[in-house]
Amino acid sequence: MTRRVRTLIVDDSATMRATLKMMLSADPEIEVVGMAPEPFAAREMIKSLNPDVLTLDVEMPGMDGLSFLERVMRLRPMPVVMCSTLTAHGAEVTIEALRLGAVDYIAKPTGTPEDIARDATLLCEKVKAAARASVRPGPTPNLTPAKGGGVSKGSIIAIGSSTGGVEALFSLLKAMPKDSPPILVVQHMPAAFTRNFAARLDGECAVKVVEATNGSPVEQGTVYIAPGGRAHMELATNGERRIKLRETDPISGHRPSVDALFRSFCPVASGSVGVILTGMGADGAQGLLEMRRAGARTLGQNRQTCVVYGMPRAAMEIGAVMEEISLSAMPEAILAACRAKPLGIV
User: Fold this and answer.
1) Is 230 exposed, middle or buried (0-12, 13-18, 19+ CB in 10 A)?
2) What is the pLDDT of residues 314-338, one digit of tens each?
3) Which candidate in 30, 61, 146, 223 could, as Cys together with 331 as Cys, close a disulfide (CB 3.0–4.6 Å)?
């Protein structure tokens, strides 16, 4: 029998603790080994119970979730799934938690029994994925800034990521030079999060970072973050290159979809670079394969530096990735690909 994922719930609300326990205990692969009302009790339970995964509330008395997370990742690194409210403040704090090393997050369960059931399935998936994640002490260190210049005219970059992607994107985009080719990014996130995420990146990166808007021209030195939950982001290539937001059904459960982004790059593949980063599942694998077959250069984050080696592995297994790169080497590798001569159609 497979060992169950031993999970510790940390939340100051007795009702929320009971709800999370009910949701997690329904999965035979998860065992709730304890529940703590605040971080000081959680610290002792971590020592005595040795859980595999922690679910952590953002706002608690005595010590907030961020402060506790920072201590956990410094002193006893372990997979942490943040439990957040979908508010502007909740989004800002959760993004910081992901930057500090939390594996994933989930919105606090609310709504109808059907909503709770859907949230329960998602929570269990995230906890089990977190148990398999590669967790390192503290936030990902700053990468050496890549050198700009010499990039082929018309170069453009597409990046897809999911679980662990917030941390990876902070490191990668901060290392990109101010004159980088345009970069379009799909990171799986709820609608309430992407605007805060873009604003936070914009304050820390040499490149300009914005949440994408429909019809906006694609410009050098700018990163476009797909708005979460609302639409698929694509590159429109009729004449001037522009952002196209398409409010259609999710693709393989995702909206925005990495596959949709990558496929939209095929008409300009000869000047494109496709990059697939850490993430759970297989979104982006087929789209990246189509990019490569159309003549794009394609890169994948390697297993050793992924939080979850899911999306890059799926892409590698079907031949979509030309080369796997460590996160630290990724900025230079992307720009080197932009400087290289165009490839032919495969």
Assistant:
1) middle
2) 999 999 999 999 999 999 999 999 9
3) 146
**pTM for the full model?**
0.93
Both tokens assigned to 155: 């170069």
Residue whose token pair is 């090393």 = 101
265-309, pLDDT tens digit by residue? 999 999 999 999 999 999 999 999 999 999 999 999 999 999 999
- Give the residue numbers annotated as catalytic, written as ranges: 162, 188, 283
One DSSP character per residue, 277-323 reads: -SBSS-TTHHHHHHHHHHT-EEEEE-GGG-SSBSHHHHHHHTT--SE
User: Structural domain of residue 243, as residue ranges?
Assistant: 156-339
* Structural domain includes residue 149: no
Same domain assignment for residues 204 and 72 = no
Q: For 191-202, b where at least 16 C-beta lie within 10 A, e where not — what string?
A: ebbbbbbbebbb
Q: Where residue 238 sits, what CATH number does that domain have?
A: 3.40.50.180
Token pair of 329, please? 């080497």
Instruction: Count CB atoms within 10 A of the CB of residue 40.
Output: 12
CA gap 178, 180 in Å, rounded: 6
Strand order in the sheet with 30-36: 30-36, 5-10, 53-57, 80-84, 104-107
Q: How far apart are CA 336 and CA 313, in angstroms?
A: 23
Q: What is the DSSP secondary structure assignment for residue 329, as one 8-state letter? A: G
Task: Of 40, 33, 75, give the one whose Cα is nearest residue 54.
Answer: 33
Beta-ladder partners of 210: 224
The 10s digit of each residue's pLDDT in 72-89 is: 999 999 999 999 876 667
CB 183 within 8 A of CB 157: yes
Q: Are residues 265 and 323 in the same domain?
A: yes
Residues 208-215: contacts with CB within 8 Å, 24+ apart?
A: 209/173, 212/184, 212/243, 212/245, 213/243, 213/245, 214/243, 214/244, 214/245, 215/242, 215/243, 215/244
In a domain, 344, yes or no: no
Residues 198 and 122 reside in one and the same domain:
no
